[in-house]
Amino acid sequence: MKDRKIDPTKTEKGIHLEDIIETLHKHYPDADADPIRRAYAFASQAHAGQVRLSGQPYLSHPMNVALILARLKMLPPVIAASLIHDTLEDTGATAETLEETFGKEITRLVEGVTKLSMIRTSSREERQASNVRKMIMAMSDDIRVLLIKLADRLHNMRTLDYLEPDRKRAIAEETIDIYAPLANRLGIHWIKNELEDLSFKYLHPLEYKRLSRLMKERKEDLDKFILTIVNQTRDILMKERISAEVSGRHKHIYGIHKKMRQQLLDFDQLFDIIGVRIIANSNEDCYRALGLIHENYKPVLGKFKDYIALPKENGYQSLHTAVLSPTGKRMEFQIRTQQMHRISEEGIAAHWRYKEGGSVKPGKQDDHFIWLRRLQDIDHTADSSREFLENLKMDLFPDEVYVFTPDQEVMAFSSGATALDFAYAIHTQVGHRCVGVKINAESVPISSKLRNGDIVEILTSENQRPGKSWLKIAKTSHAKSLIRSYIRNAQREEALRLGRELVEEELKKYGLDCKRYCTNLSLEKAAEAMGFKNSEILLERIGSSKLPVYHFLQKLLPPEEWKKIQDASKSSLKNLFFKLIRRRKVAQNIGVKVGSTDNMLIRFAGCCNPVPGDAIIGNISKGHGIVIHNKSCSLIKEMASDPEKFVEAQWERPEKKQLHPVRIVAHAVNRPGILAKVSAAIAESQANINNAVVQVTDLHHGELNLTIEIEDLEHLERVMDAVRNVDGVRRVERGLDAGRPAKK
Ligand code: MN
For the chain, what is the radius of gyration of the CA atoms? Predict the structure, then answer.
């Protein structure tokens, strides 16, 4: 060490390890400093050779952070963690090494701080800033992580001078938007004030210089003045045997700047105003103290506020008054009890009151403040700080998670929300077209739950359409209602189309000319006669078989035609719908024959994707015609008790070659390149892949969910065999169950 110019144990402010330990022992004489010494040794080795932009050894940074935390009355684990807080991010150290050397508690703290430093913000919008603040809170599962982060930021702000101008500005903005309010939330006002002043210095350098010069000129006088008033006040109270703490303060630079802006006052009007705080033992003493202050100093009219009798909406209680000093200087007094003081110092507490809409009754014991009292001494054990943060989180965002868009925008969701909810939150069309999602650059199912800090990217396809199964995947009411309305519209259109066809069929059945009887005009007339708003609603009702077409014809046709039909028809109304469907003529050969005739209103089920060669069955579904299912489809098995809903179906040669989508699931060893090999095998078997979702099931295994296009069963078997032969694939099966993502 002798030959080094800079003693690495000294920081730029000359901090030595022993200073930190001495500060610790001032608060906790018996505390074991060993973890701190070991962390120091570890950090000096890990950061050896690293130099800060200031030219100081890197170690000076964690040393200063540790000293700040020691002054905040932190215990050895926190101080030790702060000494090594940058080793995971900036040196070769791994979490495993840390855990071996320092154990779980300290390692968790370091990991927590490292995780927070991954959060980057770019936007200055207030909503964004507030979301980022919440995200930081949500991501720290230990309050001590936040405290280390604040101390880290404080020291970085103190040494910001050495950075590039752009970086300085960005960090100062982030500090004033995110970290100063966090410090305020945690009730550490001196950190909040210093962070604000330092940010102000870099954001508005000229104004900062002007104000600090003005302050410096008058600070000495002002400090003397404050001391005089505080002593006078103490004497006044003592004479009347009121025991109270009295303190005085002047505003910090940023506070003055803010007030100047908000109230359009100039420096002279603000600077001289000092604050005096009296903390008494009881409400009664507060009022007595107020009386004494008014007796001894001249009150300013209209400035007295009794927030004890009438607490502010957020629960804040205090007596406020402004008085003039003997020399005519304005002084603001706040008089309150210890309990009220704690509440006023703590933003979260205010929040609770606000939410409950009630007020704090003087002297009322309140469990919410137990953690708060702990925070005052900041003697955090792991348990109490975890409890604190849990309370904090429950209150601020009981069920929220915060995630990033690829553009680094933070979005808030209720907890349990899935990637599909995210897609709908971006845009309705992004939701409707969502085919896949990448979370933190990995493809995952759209049903994946969002976790704090995730970066979420949605993949879309023009051909995608929402299905009923999405209602189970989406958790937010926003997404659910969009999916529902899409499905409703799609069903309505389908019903409308079907209704038109049914009417045409029925007319043709009786040899009536559609063009003649079924004009727009006659349709509207009939609709009106039957009490429907318009003919579309009427046709929809027919198409969804809620209204027998037979009834409708009565209104549509001239009486003489109607009579003919009545005579001809022997069918019961009950079977009409079914019969009509069966009588449908071939309009388009899709390769399936239902019952004894071909049928145009046939669709293939999306759940089991039947292919030529499969045993199939037709399901008569309201408003959808006939849906062809694989006989082994789980949906069909569920409906087996209702045989009327089924009709026999067979494959037949289609006019044109048809491709059928089929889902297959390949269980494979989780190794790089496996998807590429499987894709190649499928391509070699002359099949296309429509969609592929890869899901990691455990450390060593993965699942490939593939939708491929094939011609028939024989082709499918060929493809599946090819996939089975890929090295690393364990098992391949057909997906027959409604496309539900595999359980984890
Ligand atoms: Mn740091």
Answer: 37
Of 725, 655, 723, the residue nearest 687 (C-alpha): 723
Region 448-454: mean pLDDT is: 85
Three-state secondary-structure class, residue 312: coil
Report pLDDT for 8.
Answer: 35
pLDDT of residue 459: 92
Q: What is the pTM of this model?
A: 0.53
In the residue annotation, 90 being an active-site residue is answered as: yes
Rounded CA separation 335/318 (Å): 6
Cα 331 to Cα 345: distance, rounded to the nearest angstrom: 20
Centre of ligand 1 from the C-alpha of residue 65, in Å = 8
Q: Show Cβ contacts of residue 566 under 8 Å, excluding neighbours closer than 6 positions.
A: none
Catalytic residue, candidates 19, 90, 141, 504: 90
380-399 pLDDT tens trace:
344 444 554 544 444 444 46
- Name the least confident of 20-29, 361-370, 564-573: 361-370
Per the annotation, the verdict on 89 as an active-site residue is yes
Q: In the chain, what percentage of residues exceed pLDDT 70? A: 80
- Residue whose C-alpha is closest to residue 311's, from 360, 366, 369, 364: 360
**Which is catalytic among the residues 18, 34, 89, 284?**
89
Q: What pLDDT sits at residue 200? A: 95
Highest mean pLDDT among 305-314, 424-433, 541-550: 424-433
Burial 655-677 (b: 16+ CB within 10 A, else e): eeebebebbbbbebebeeebbeb
Please report, as a single letter, which amino acid is at residue 35. P
State pLDDT tens for residues 226-261. 999 999 999 999 999 999 999 998 888 898 888 888
Closest CA to 108 of 370, 389, 346, 377: 389
Can you tell me the mean pLDDT for 267-284?
85
Distances (CA, A) of 629 to 183, 442, 611, 647: 61, 33, 9, 11
Give the length of the chain: 744
Pairing of strands 592-594, 646-651: antiparallel
Tokens of 629: 């299912």
Distance of CA 116 from the midpoint of ligand 1 (Å): 11
Q: How far is CA 102 from CA 38, 42, 45, 67, in A?
A: 8, 10, 15, 19
Whole-angstrom CA distances from 329 to 43, 230, 727 are: 52, 14, 86
How far is residue 406's CA from residue 80's CA, in Å, rounded to a whole number? Answer: 35
pLDDT top residue among 655 and 726:
726
Residues 744 and 740: their CA atoms lie apart, in Å, by 12
